[in-house]
Amino acid sequence: MVTPTPCEHPIFKELAALQEGIDVFPNPEVSDYTSCRAYTKTATRCQLGLKGKAPRANALLSEFREMDKCPRTDIFYHQLKEFLTITHCGKHQEKPLARLDEWRKQREQAASSLSKDTSSTATGTDYFSSIASLSEAGSTATSILPLSIEQPTEHSPACQSIIDSLSSSSRSLRDAPSREQAPEITHCERVEELETSVEDLTLSTSHHTTASDGSCHDEAEVRITGIGLASLQRKGTLRDTSPVLKEIYKYLTGEEQKEGIVYVLEHVEIKGLFKVGCTRETAAKRHHQPGNCYGTNTKVIHETTDGPFVGAQKAKRLAQAILRHHKLQVIKCEQCGKGHKEWFWAQREVVLDTVKIVERFVQLPAYTLQDGRMKLSPVAEERMEKMCNFS
């Protein structure tokens, strides 16, 4: 008999429990995925090979490691189902998949009960409730835990610090005189003005709810009329700025070297919902383009004021990386049936200030041609090194 190996990760704990007594190695982090992991009648490991399945199994394990809780979403459930399917042969798939179905039913029942018990007393209600209430009487929504997400108007200290820093850094942008009235600003002055702004952006992140005991909690998934099935995406920690830094240090791709403008759309019916995009034309033309799902019930509230610039795509990606904790992942759009990744659920000022600051940062220019590639410019590189040197 194989001695069970304890696992601490919340998702691996659930997988180990689902496979206990079925698999030779219930802990998904133990052993390999070259053959079926189930017991045979002789209490030995099944020898049927899983040809070509190991890379996908390991990829799913990597995705699970990035999660700090078990979300209650269809996507997560299908990931678990896929994992159990590809790590067992056809003969041994039935038992773990049956346990998974039962596990899901129990969680849904528990969540439904908790939702009823807390609905009258919860002060930190799920901030999807405001948009779910806009849905038509016939629309459906999956069960959600009311306490798992904070209201967008009530900020944690970390989130508030971002808004404060962004507001103060962008105030000079809003209050600045027009181009005709503005005195000439030297390149050095522009760099100095932006250094603080970029530092505030890259070293700060928005609020992210994590259970103190590391247990499995749920992310909301809801059907929004006019949008579709969506869930708020929250990955990483308050101190995890690596996605922003990685994006800053990436060379400009061929597409990013083209001129364009960055624009922001605001949903006219759902308060706090914004789209951050980029186009080589005008925001208005892109907004009214046929087949544009984002053009329904939205209005343009920002586009690059100085016209097209090189690196607009990079500015968009930087803004989206900074706002990643506010991302609203549309799983199935009501209009096209596909997914969308450019919706953000946040305060208007945070979205606009973020976009304006990254626009100006990229226009320093933050990227120049070096050794045949568009790399971070010496000025931007020097500033990033100062920001990231904690020794």
What do these coordinates show?
This protein is α+β, with helices and mostly antiparallel strands and 391 residues long. It has 2 domains: 10-116, no CATH class; 157-388, no CATH class. It is 38% helix and 14% strand. It has helices at residues 10-19, 54-65, 74-86, 94-118, 129-132, 157-175, 187-202, 242-249, 283-287, 312-322, 348-362, 378-388; strands at residues 221-224, 228-232, 259-267, 273-279, 298-303, 309-310, 327-333, 340-345, 367-370, 373-376. It is globular. The N and C termini lie far apart (50 Å). Pfam families: T5orf172. Residues 268-358 form the Bacteriophage T5 Orf172 DNA-binding domain. It comes from Byssochlamys spectabilis (Paecilomyces variotii).
* pLDDT averaged residue by residue: 73
Residue stretches low in confidence (pLDDT < 50, at least 5 long) are 1-5, 118-185, 199-218, 236-240
Please tell me what the overall shape is: globular
Distance between the termini: 50 Å
Count of alpha/pi helices? 12
Following the backbone from N to C, one meets helices and strands in this order, namely HHHHHHHEEHEEHEEHEEHEEH
User: What is the makeup of the main sheet?
Assistant: 8 strands, antiparallel
Gyration radius from CA atoms, angstroms:
24 Å
Structural class: alpha+beta
Protein name: Bacteriophage T5 Orf172 DNA-binding domain-containing protein
Pfam families: T5orf172
Domain Bacteriophage T5 Orf172 DNA-binding: 268-358
Organism: Byssochlamys spectabilis
